[in-house]
Input
Amino acid sequence: MENILSVLVFFPAIAGLLGFVVDKESARAYGITVAAIEFLLSIWLWFSFDMANAGMQFVELIPIIPDFGISYYLGVDGISLFIIIMATLMTLIGMMSMSITENIKNMIITLLFLEMTMVGVFVALDAIIFYLFWELSLVPMLYIIGAWGGPLRVYAAVKFFLYTFTGSLIMLVGMLFVAYIYHNLTGVWSFAITDWYALVLPVSYQLWLFAAFFIGFAIKVPMFPFHTWLPYAHGQAPTIGSVILAAVLLKMGTYGFVRFSLPMFPDAAVLAITPIAAIAIVMIIYTAMVAYAQKDMKQVIAYSSVSHMGIIMLGIFAMNAEGISGSVFQMLSHGIVSGALFMLVGVIYDRRHTKLMSEFGGLASVMPKYAVIFGIMLMASVGLPLTIGFVGEFLVLLGFYQVSPVLTVLAGTSIIIGAIYMLTVYKQSFFGPVTKEENKSLKDLNRKEIWSLIPLVLIVVWLGVYPKPVLGPIDNSVKAMLTFMDQKAITQEAKDMIKVPDTNNNRREVK
Amino acid sequence: MLQPINVSLESLNLITLAPMLVAIAGGLIILILDLVNKSLHKSLYVMLTILILVIDFGATLGLNVNERGFFDVMLIDGVSIVSQLLIIVASIIFTPLALTSRRFHEYSYPEFFALFLFMVAGFQFMVASDNLILIFVGLETASLSLYTLIALHNRSNSYEAAVKYFTMGALAAAFFAMGSAVIYALTGSVELYKVADVLATRLNEAGLMVAIFGSSVLLLVAFAFKLSLFPFHTWAPDVYEGASAPLAGYMSVVPKVAAFVVSIRIFGMYIDLGVEWVRVVILVLAVLTMTLANLMALVQEDVKRMLAYSSISHAGFIIAALALDTTEGTTAIFFYYALFMFTNLGAFTMLWMSRHKNRRFNARFDHPYEKFAGFIKIMPMGAVIMAVFMLSLAGVPPFSIFWGKIYVMQAAVNSGYVWLAIVMGLNSAIAAYYYLKLVVYMFLKDPVKDVDTVYYNLSKPLMAVVGLAAVATIGAIFYVQPLVSYVYYMISASGY
Output
């Protein structure tokens, strides 16, 4: 099936439209079935994906507005493949575990549209199509937070929308400027990213354009100091909203850096290493400390998300295969782990209608299964070896060590601080005697919750022990990208900084 | 001895007048019908008006590009054809909005439709000429009809609106006449192509710049009134509020398209001649207009006033494209309005649907935000469509106005005005807030229970118009290519 990407993008949207007809009572089953089919389609994509090929596959190209140079241009490579699979997986799992009953049909339809935009962002190879899905993803999320969220939901939803929207408009100007330069040099209008890759720009242009794209992506990631929308969004969003937001929507930002900023502006990216690393370190340490100070379990995970996104940013700007592959892998790992943690917090919230840690204590004796799964996810989040979290974090730190040992040591403290705040959460909530009367009668995980969490546990352990099937294709595409960046870079500094992997593929180049 | 004036019929090229004559004849037919039989229902007049406009559309479409006619005062170039088509299409969409389920005073008079057709003819004259006198005549014909149409809405604030608009319009007309007089004094001609020739040869004369300054400032003030540019925009929200919702939507498109065409002809000429400060003044006005109107829109409590300010802001957006004075910039103006027309008329029609005879929600406003609270629960389809219009106005892809926005911004970037594109981007972000506010009210709040339903004035024709607007807004991606290439071809054929 050559046009599987189109199917992946539009299947949920069409299903969402048809979903208006489905009866309220059956909407949930309908949504889960559609999401499951979508997930199987994405697995099929994985199996028909050529692992040895580092370039774009399943490419579809149909010009839609030739006068602007806008085409319907899709493709997938090792970097985007697994993020797509994660997006479909998390949508499926999120829907399965969803406890919302009010207006369930609207929720299912909204989630299906959201799934379309998420897949769309990661398969788009035309900047305008990318932008289209990027912006469109805000609308369903606005509705999810605003309609099913907590008391401050409207404020949180609007804040989320406006932050991202503002940033992306600046990015849009950047895109238009790149198209303009492309037109000047070639006489043809094109928004195709692969065409843009061929542009070699002077460093001053690169810096400005890098800044424009940076604003768009950094707000989405979110990077310090643009992160303030995130705690609100997470704090007010319903569980399903937080799961999708943390698992997939945040990855759009980091994916944007890998897809646009690095290959298009290699020299500017190299110049930006120090400032971005500084911001990333601030994100890692500062938000980890903020996370420690939280009383609300969900806020702890929200801030820990920001902290982990800092690790991802650090890896991307390591400019070598370990760092970038590690980052992409860490995107997957963070998606799965933080998604699972938000679901777990949702579980306890459904039972007690509070997320304050002080309300709990001794849960391990009341809810043993819950405590076990929470424990595993928590360890994965901290980065315990043999869990999924370790692989990405280790590779990132290994990659960045080549750039700056000092900063890497600072970033490494994230594991320690992470362990502190995560274990504190665990200690306060799960260990000790059961202090509150209400907690004594809490029910352990029910079937629905177990069946949605077990797959995630299996993935966490499987990819922690044996990450190669996923890491291999990522590594291939990342190496191809680095080689290409190195050829394209015009300054000597950039050429020195971008480490091109040797042909042996396994050992890094020694200089 | 005086020579007898000898004009052959062919040299008059009367076909160039055909579109306007169709509209005028149609208006007269309606008046005659009323004379013969007083008891005819408004639906007849509505359909008749649409038919006449369709013929008008056909006549316009059949014109050849770059012709002159009628003693060379008529100029049928690409700009005039595209703008006439826009005017007619917007009028065709507007007309069926008279067929509401409730009776409204103005539509019971056939004069309403006759005046409406005269107004269309006036606008058509205005855009199809480069003779300052004919432009003035067209402008005044159209404006006087429009004032009356507003006042026919038989409410105290409609009279207020009409009088306000009339006074402001009269002032603008005076400025226009004075500006034209200065041009005539300078060059001895009121035909812009001759004016351009004369000015080009005399541009280096000392003292000429002062006169040019005088004329262009006067004309700029006149058109800033018509285009509701800052600081001459203050009439717009009041007039929109007083006029009926469809007419307000109509006013945010058609008179502005006509005024833009004349502005392109006059100020484009100045910029072409190298009078650089005209461009600077227009850019400053554009930035101020879009920014301040956006800020004002943020604090409005009434949806209609919010949409009024939003129209002002969009006009500011587009006038910036005029200042670029490139083929792309000029194309952007018409392209943007073609897309804006559907969305904005759709949004105003949604307000029209919810129009009550009395103010049930708020003592001061017809359409306060509270009216739309929980709209998703009252009328899900309506809420979704209204949300689509709002997101389109905010510039969220893939809805129609997004394509207009990127075209304008691309045109700005291409002419080296990257800062302008950034200002436009930031303004779109500010604007998103007030459009979202309505979406938030519709989707995220609970309905105000103790009042009548919102879709009070709904009828099949209104639904058809909203449906058409929604399809045009959502499916924009599929017709953007043919539309933009047609407009671009027409504009470049007429040398702008």
